[in-house]
Amino acid sequence: MENKKGYRAVARNLPISPIKVRPIADQVRRRPYVDTIDLLDSLPNKGAGFLKKVIASAATNAISQNPNLDEDRLYIAEILVDSGPSRKTLWPRGHGRADRQIKRSCHISVIINNKADS
Fold first, then answer.
1. Contact 11/25 with Cβ under 8 angstroms?
2. How far is CA 107 from CA 6, 10, 17, 44, 86, in A?
3. pTM for this structure?
4. Per residue, what are the HEC states of 94-113?
């Protein structure tokens, strides 16, 4: 991901499982920025809110680094959803026993690019 050109934003240690975020990321990959924000606004998933924040941050980075960019020409070049650290806690059960509960987290990386004029 370091070799890709474009404008980048990363959110780390988000308190949601990457398995829940990846299907939403697959829906918005390679789409225009404006359409992506509209789609994520209409989805009820918790992961859609996290993705919307990271994508909006990447677009803000792009516009602040290059003020000549048009927001309508931006598209999502790449989205990576990686697993983050997992917290292992004890979950009380009956008869004095305990089970282990794994609370997963994820990292979301987004690259936004400008469409080439063709």
1. no
2. 19, 7, 10, 20, 12
3. 0.89
4. HHHCEEEEEECCEEEEEEEE
* Sign of the CA dihedral running 4, 31, 34, 53: negative
Strands 87-92 and 7-14: unpaired
pLDDT in tens, 59-72: 999 999 999 999 99
Residue with tokens 């009380």: 92
- Does the domain at residues 7-114 carry the CATH identifier 2.40.50.100? no
**What are the tokens at 97?**
């026993």
Mean pLDDT of 97-114: 96
One-letter amino acid at 98 equals A
Structure tokens, 67: 């003020």
Amino acid at 79: I
**Phi-psi region at 98: left, alpha or beta (left = phi > 0; alpha = psi -120 to 50):** beta
The two three-digit tokens of residue 30, written as one number: 């390679």
